[in-house]
Amino acid sequence: MFQNLTSRLTGVFDDISRQSTLSEADVDAALREIRLALLEADVHFKVAKKFLKRVRTRAVGTEVSKALNPGQQVVKIVNEELVETLGTAERLNLSGQPPRVIMLVGLQGAGKTTMSAKLAARLRKQGQKPLLVAADPYRPAAADQLETLGEQIDVPVFRGPELPPILADNAVKHARSLGLDVVILDTAGRLQIDESMMQEVASIKEKTQPNEVLLVADAMTGQEAVEIATGFNDAVGITGLVLTKVDGDSRGGAAISMREVTGVPIKFLGTSEKLDGLEVFTPERLANRILGLGDVVGLIEKAEEAFDEKQAAELEQKLRTAQFDLEDFLEQLRQIKKMGSVTSLLGMVPGLNRAAQELDEEEVDRQFRRTEAIITSMTRHERQNPKVMNASRKRRVAAGSGTSVQEVNRLLKQFRNMQDMMKRMARGGRKGKRAAMDMFGGGFG
After folding, report:
1. Nearest-CA neighbor of 285 among 275, 277, 273, 297?
2. 300-442: what fold?
3. How many Å separate Cα 5 from the centre of its chain?
């Protein structure tokens, strides 16, 4: 996420952080580099200009000149002003009598249908009873796609032959009769903003009186996303922004620009194609990630979603008693894969952003698959008792996993080292602490 922008800004910050003093010329030189980074990331030029003006006003004043580390103080100022640009975090408005209505609008291909299902899944998880409404009669199989997604998340879907405004009105009445809490309207998109489209969404809005009108915009469209947001806001009045495909956007310009230009808050980020790939927007956390400062809270949230609480307790007990085996290790690998790419996870750890950028994601993924293939090619007895792995067993496992005996030996050696560290950690004391430092410093790969 935003790798290009993060890489450029990290380089600028590394340079100024090494300087014991900063002159006005030094600040201006750094700001020129930041300006280029922002414009290359498709940040709207007016947004970049206002942002840099605020940063410069603070960076050439006493706030920096009297700081013990002026470089770090500039980084702090950039971070605070980026948070200001991204705006405050605002949650969904679900006040009033049910059913509350959430209307999704946007251009074709932005990901509205999938986002409708993601929102429904999230609300259902929070105890709400949502209804999905297929209000897009123009795109072939749009209603079928929504029904398929609805089945996956166990949420009912309302569809019919009526025109979208009438269909949406009927859906709200249907939800009320069933005692459902939230109606999510998946409206039709167009290849571009046009008058007929705006008239239709305006009519739907008039008939259903939605609590929220959320614009779903593809983050990868860059500056065009700002124009789309402005067009929709002027025509129908949007209450929130939802950026999709954020995981594939290496620039980040849309996320930074849209809130500033429209004055409309970003409410969600779509971080993957999976139905749980939806993140509540928090400006502080996004600013930290853009600036390469990590996102520990986000990492914890991903871990909580991926790891079962009971399994985690059982694993902790096994670690304490040094009974962790290859079956447990395989399960942990699979849980980590659920959390997302290794590079994105490392990018959320403060101080590891540069390591994440240098990592070859495809090679890491291949290594994960090879490790999984080796372990699954073992018998259950071998996974629970790796010591029984003799030469003939290793040859059989290598042949079964499509790897080499050398790779099998490497995995077994790494696992033995890991077990030894866990035993030392379990014994505690200085040796245990030293083992923990070795384990997390040396890694496992």
Report:
1. 297
2. 434 Repressor (Amino-terminal Domain) (1.10.260)
3. 16
Measured between alpha carbons, how far is 84 from 86 in angstroms, rounded to an integer? 6
Tell me the two tokens of residue 280.
């509540």
User: How big is the CA angle at 206 (ends 204 and 212), to the nearest 5 degrees?
Assistant: 75
Name the CATH superfamily housing domain 100-294. P-loop containing nucleotide triphosphate hydrolases (3.40.50.300)
d(CA 230, CA 228): 5
**98-133 pLDDT per residue, tens:** 999 999 998 887 888 999 999 999 999 899 999 999
d(CA 215, CA 233): 9
pLDDT digits over 204-236, tens only?
A: 999 999 999 999 988 777 677 778 888 888 888
Give the CA angle between residues 133, 216, 102 to the nearest 5°: 40
d(CA 134, CA 148) in angstroms, rounded, equals 12
Q: Please state the φ and ψ torsions of residue 291, each to the nearest 5 degrees.
A: -90, 5
Cα torsion angle, 389, 394, 399, 404, sign? positive
Measured CA to CA, the distance from residue 43 to residue 38 in angstroms comes to 5
Instruction: Mark out the alpha helices in 273-360 (DSSP H runs).
Output: 283-290, 296-306, 309-320, 326-338, 342-347, 353-358
Tokens for 366?
């291949």
Residues 240 and 259: their CA atoms lie apart, in Å, by 9
| Helices then strands, each counted (H, E), the chain | 22, 8
Q: How many CB atoms lie within 10 A of CB 388?
A: 11
Q: With beta carbons less than 8 A apart as the criterion, state whether 333 and 368 touch.
A: yes
287 is written with which tokens? 């600013």
- Residue 396 has φ and ψ, to the nearest 5°, of -65, -45
- For the whole model, what pTM was predicted? 0.65
Superfamily of domain 3-86: SRP54, nucleotide-binding domain (1.20.120.140)
CA 377 to each of CA 161, 240, 398, 403, 408: distance values in angstroms, whole numbers, following the listed order: 53, 50, 8, 10, 11
Among 54, 19, 51, 56, residue whose Cα is nearest residue 38 = 51
Size of the chain, expressed as the number of residues it contains? 445
List the one residue out of 60, 15, 8, 53 whose CA is nearest residue 34: 8
Contact between 219 and 250 (Cβ < 8 Å) = no
Question: Is 136:165 a contact under the CB 8 Å cutoff?
Answer: no
